[in-house]
Write a structure and sequence with these properties.
The complex is a heterodimer.
Chain A lengths: L3 E14 L2 E13 L3 E5 L6 H8 L10 E4 L7 E2 H6 L3 H11 E4 L11 H11 L7 H9 L14 H13 L5 E5 L7 H18 L2 E6 L2 H6 L3 E10 L4 E7 L1
Parallel strand pairs in A: 2-10, 3-8, 3-9, 6-7, 7-8
Antiparallel strand pairs in A: 1-2, 1-4, 4-5, 9-10
Helix pairs in contact in A: 4-6, 5-6, 6-7
Chain B lengths: L2 H15 L1 H38 L1 H4 E4 L5 E2 H8 L4 E7 L6 E5 L7 E8 L18 E4 L1 H7 L6 E10 L2 E14 L9 E5 H11 L20 E2 L1 E6 L5 H10 L4 E2 L2 H43 L1 H10 L3 H4 L1 H36 L11 H28 L3 H4 L3
Parallel strand pairs in B: 5-9, 6-8
Antiparallel strand pairs in B: 1-11, 1-12, 2-10, 3-11, 4-5, 4-7, 6-9, 7-8
The chains are: A alpha/beta, B alpha+beta.
């Protein structure tokens, strides 16, 4: 049995204005090392919110348990870090263990593609080896390395975003609808390459998508999602569970 | 590379990448700072130099005695030691303080008034040399013109007296070591060493001057006194105190009190006006710079969120806008200095002559430029740190959805 990377119990995040709005609930989720998980649901169901919570960039309002153990060692209590405002501890976990691909790439426009991909490695003071060239070659962007992101196509930008998220060999890859802005053929191609890469690197993948067909083709474990009105219809509540 | 090094590098890359926006920030800073510097330049140029000139003019600091007194050497020494006295020297009786001067290049014999001088005489402050014996003399411009002499020429000085029923005249070859500025005296004046002034008086009084071989009565004066003095206060603000001290001693004096009051009033009123304008300008500058840099931090929220997502610490993130504000502050200041220098030249070259002003109309001291830099960097840092802290304290996910 592989170790548990994420363990969440009764995690809640609300976005309320005058007691009306949205509530995300996670009664129970355990994600094991090397698993490939999909958060599937329509737009506005809280996929990105949950992705941000898992990426340690969004503070849940409540959590009975929120543990992360990326390298099968001692689990870190993320809820405790948030409550005690240990932001640098959260930064360190993000820096070392998490790669995050945003829907629109999130590349820094003033750095070349190579510099964008190198950035997580520089932050960890990893040696300059051939890993940038090899990962770029696998993702098909090795000819674009010296260009600025603004000169790339949408597909190339997403490939570069994946390269940046993977360049420092994280144990967790989070991808928030990474192919939403691409045509289906390009999306399929990119995800196929990424799946090959993460299998080789034994990375835990959690991706959000609203495309059921795409998710089933990639053979991902899908977290169950239910949504509906609550509390007299004032709150739209979305629940993700194992 | 450390996180700090990485942030400094990234902030510079972003700053140069967005060169149009950075340029706008630099121009907007210079657009506010340069007029402020020109305003200060005019204040220091017109007001300070004009007022300083009036304040420093020795005529306004002179305290003249009315009538004749008996002032001993000890009295002069006491006043010379005071901090509020710049210069004091004895005068002899006016009738005994004249001398006939004759040059080889002029036909006329000129009767010149003698004034004793010494080192640090405010009237001759611009001159390098001071008479230090009987044979050196400084002429007023009027006297030099009438005698048709220049600096370095030798002239004949002579004195006449009626002694024991006979008319006598003695001659002395003196060197013109310098010519005083026209503003010093419009009269024909010869500035001489105190010894020559005293020798002149002694000779005219029928007494002997052994140093110069002039015969006459020999009178042993244990402690001589002087009828008058030439006294200059250290500044116009010291004149009133000195007048009070002298009047307490029974010395009647005359000063340019009314002129001094006018000058002081001009100085104070203009200073108040300029400081009001300058303070309002500086406050406007602070708010304008602070607001634009604050807005810049807001604009950078997305990029800062990505950096935090990648793993940069919150504290380091603050450095990003701080460094960019520093670039803007230094480059904006540099541009403002260039604009100021151009206007300074234009004002001084073209406007000052049209106003018939002799002094520089617009100028700043080097420390003023550094004060401007300090003020600019200080405000920029404050605004950027406040904005940066706000950016570092918001949850990183807040900016990510806009990417």
């Amino acid at each position: 049995m592989t170790s548990i990377v994420y363990s969440l119990r009764n995690v809640v995040k609300e976005r309320l204005v005058e007691n009306a709005g949205f509530r995300l609930k996670v009664p129970s989720i355990d994600i094991h090392a090397g698993e490939n998980i999909a958060l599937v649901g329509h737009s506005g169901c809280g996929k990105s919110t949950l992705m941000d919570i898992l990426a340690l960039v969004l503070h849940p309002d409540k959590a009975d348990r929120f543990l992360i153990d990326p390298v099968d060692g001692e689990a870190d209590d993320i809820d405790d870090f948030w409550r005690r405002k240990k932001r640098n501890r959260l930064s360190r976990i993000r820096k070392q263990h998490i790669g995050y691909v945003l829907q629109s790439g999130g590349l820094l426009p003033y750095l070349s593609v190579r510099e964008n991909i190198e950035l997580p490695r520089k932050l960890l003071k990893l040696p300059d080896d051939d890993s940038i060239n090899s990962i770029s070659r696998v993702l098909g962007i090795h000819r674009q390395l010296d260009k600025l992101p603004g000169l790339l196509s949408a597909g190339e930008r997403q490939r570069a975003a994946f390269a940046r998220a993977l360049s420092h060999r994280p144990s967790i890859l989070l991808a928030d609808e990474p192919t939403a802005a691409l045509d289906p053929i390009t999306a399929r191609k990119i995800m196929a390459v990424v799946m090959e890469l993460i299998k080789g690197l034994k990375i835990t993948l959690i991706t959000a998508s609203h495309d059921w067909a795409h998710v089933y083709r990639m053979d991902l474990r899908v977290l169950r999602q239910e949504a509906g009105p609550a509390e007299d219809g004032r709150i739209y509540e979305s629940t993700f569970r194992d | 590379m450390s996180q700090v090094g990485n942030i400094v590098r990234l902030s510079f890359r972003d700053y140069t990448h967005e060169w149009r926006m950075s340029g706008c920030f630099i121009f907007s800073l210079a657009a506010v700072l340069a007029p402020l510097m020109i305003l200060f330049g005019l204040k220091f140029g017109i007001v300070s130099s004009m007022v300083t000139q009036l304040i420093e003019n020795p005529v306004n600091r002179e305290i003249r005695s009315i009538g004749s007194g008996h002032y001993k050497q000890q009295w002069f020494d006491q006043f010379r030691d005071r901090n509020d006295v710049e210069f004091i020297i004895p005068k002899t009786r006016a009738l005994a303080a004249t001398m006939q001067l004759k040059s080889e290049t002029a036909k006329r014999i000129l009767t010149a008034e003698l004034l004793a001088t010494a080192r640090r005489d405010p009237l001759l402050a611009n001159l390098a040399k001071t008479p230090w014996d009987y044979y050196q003399i400084i002429l007023s411009q009027s006297a030099a013109k009438k005698l048709n002499v220049n600096k370095g020429d030798q002239i004949d000085a002579s004195l006449a007296r009626q002694f024991q029923g006979k008319r006598e005249r003695v001659h002395l070859k003196v060197n013109v070591i310098d010519i005083a500025d026209a503003a010093v005296a419009s009269r024909s004046v010869a500035f001489v060493h105190l010894d020559l002034l005293l020798a002149t008086e002694q000779f005219k009084d029928g007494r002997a001057v052994p140093d110069l071989g002039w015969h006459g009565d020999v009178i042993n004066e244990a402690s001589r006194s002087y009828p008058s003095f030439r006294l200059y206060a250290a500044s116009i603000y010291d004149v009133a105190t000195l007048v009070k001290v002298l009047e307490e001693q029974g010395v009647r004096v005359k000063t340019n009190v009314a002129e001094i009051a006018t000058v002081q009033s001009i100085d104070q009123n203009l200073s108040i006006i300029f400081w009001i304008i300058a303070c309002v300008g500086a406050a406007g500058f602070a708010f304008s710079l602070g607001a634009s840099l604050w807005a810049n931090v807001d604009r950078k929220k997305k990029d800062l969120s990505v950096l935090r997502l990648i793993g940069f610490k919150s504290g380091r993130i603050v450095l990003f806008p701080v460094m960019q504000s520093l670039y803007t502050a230094v480059l904006g200041w540099l541009l403002a200095v260039l604009v100021y220098l151009v206007f300074e030249q234009l004002i001084n070259r073209f406007l000052a002559p049209r106003l018939n002003l002799e002094q520089t109309l617009c100028f700043l001291l080097s420390e003023h430029f550094f004060w401007a830099l300090g003020l600019t960097v200080g405000i920029a840092m404050l605004a950027a740190i406040m904005g940066g802290m706000r950016a570092a304290n918001i949850e990183p996910s807040d900016g990510l959805r806009d990417i």
